[in-house]
Amino acid sequence: MATIIAWQPEFTALVVAAALFSVGCAYLADGPQTGATAQPPLKVLAAKRGLNIGVCVSPEALRNDPGYGKLLAEQFDIVTPENAMKFAHIQPERGTFTWDDADQIVDFAVQHGMKIRSHTALWHHAVPEWIADGAFARRQWEQIAKDQIAAIAQRYGDRLTYWDVVNEAIADDGQLRETIWLKTLGPDYLEKAYRWAHAAAPNVKLVYNDYGAEMKNAKSDAIYAMARDFLDRGVPLHAIGFQMHFIKSMPDPRKIAENLRRFAELGLELHVTELDIAIQKMSGTRAEQLEQQADLYRRVMEVCLSVKAVTVFQMWGLDDGHSWVPWFTKQPDAALLFDRDYQPKPAYHAVTRTLAEFQPDADADASQTCPVIADSVK
Ligand code: G3I
Predict the structure, then answer these.
(1) Could you check whether the bond before residue 34 is cis, i.e. omega within 30 degrees of 0?
(2) Pocket of ligand 1 (CB under 6 A)
């Protein structure tokens, strides 16, 4: 005869404890996809620091390679379409919009509870021929730019958290870059673009994104002046994206921190948007290069943890098999956290450790110099 036992509160505690134990065992047994560590995923460690951590993504890889999506969802909580939301991809012919690739990424992100940063509405690269060769009146150019922004906002709206509305509009000398948009819309096109984007997607945080502005220089001075002016005049701007492609050179992390702090004082969010650290210029064996790279990743993460306004930390690619660096430099490289077999590299462990252990204190990095890629560190 079956004995019925009344459920006691302590049973609940036992069941919960057993369940937690079995989850813990399963986690340790399987480990994360990354295999070599029992550390929680990057996104869990980063969340404790008030950071979203992510990468740019390729829709082809999401479609064709289950391992890619698995690692992405396991480790990261924010994505940027590497190319799929650029002008040429979304509107290759005038009035013909192609959303499949961007949809693929947005759907994946939503399904896995990840944030999305849209990238990028107005840029001088990745423009379709009908724009590059276009001969339109000024009023038509305005409509074209405004329509592109409105189309993205209508399609994705509040599913986006951030949006690089304009990308790389300022040249190294601090002047507005000579782009198709400057030429056709005039110097106030940035302001207009941010106002259009805000009107079309009022809940999305708008970002200005650029490279080579990581330390104080003519370009970052100009971005700072623009941001300050926008904030003073109520032009909607919420964050600055610092790309951080460290391929031939990397600024001293102390100088990065110093620069980020002045932007933080404006009350903006700061994002690392496209970090990669190339190894091809580093000396030593491959293993030594990867250790040097790991150390630099550590130091960039330390800077970010030292500046509270930094809320997003993104690499430009999930793994070394999906990196633009070899294509750009025409040299083999390995600039990211995971190798092409999705195995974690020393850089991954360095970022993990830093997220778990680093305790920022004022000017913690001040006494260190940056030894790697030393010929170009300024
Ligand atoms: O992979 C193909 C190759 O098979 C083909 O032979 C070759 C011919 O040109 O093209 C290769 O694809 C190129 C792809 O990069 C490789 O990653 C595309 O042509 C090229 O247009 C594409 O460039 C993209 C670039 O932006 C221009 O849109 C890169 O993927 C992308 O990583 C890069 O991203 C930019 C950010 O948007 C802004 N900041 C800088 C960053 C790096 O340039």
Answers:
(1) no
(2) 82-83, 86, 125-126, 167, 211, 243, 274, 324, 327
Q: Name the residue among 260, 280, 287 with its Cα closest to residue 272.
A: 260
> What residues does each domain of the chain span?
42-367
CATH topology of domain 42-367: TIM Barrel (3.20.20)
What pLDDT score was predicted for residue 372? 39
Residue of minimum CA distance from atom 30 in ligand 1: 324
Query: According to the model, what pLDDT value does residue 361 have?
Result: 80
| Catalytic residue check, 168 | yes
Token digits of residue 91: 């509107």
Q: Looking up tokens 């030393």, which residue turns up?
A: 374
Q: Which atom of ligand 1 is nearest to the CA of 323?
A: 17
Question: So what's the pLDDT on residue 12?
Answer: 37
**What is the CA angle 319-54-114, rounded to 5?**
125
Q: Whose CA is nearest to atom 4 of ligand 1?
A: 327
**Residue stretches of the chain with pLDDT short of 70:** 1-37, 362-378
> CA-CA distance, 220 to 258, in Å (whole number)?
12
β-pair partners for 122: 166
Residue range 296-310, pLDDT digits in tens: 999 999 999 999 999
The number of beta carbons lying within 10 Å of the beta carbon of residue 27 is 12
Which one from 82, 168, 214, 302 is the annotated catalytic residue?
168
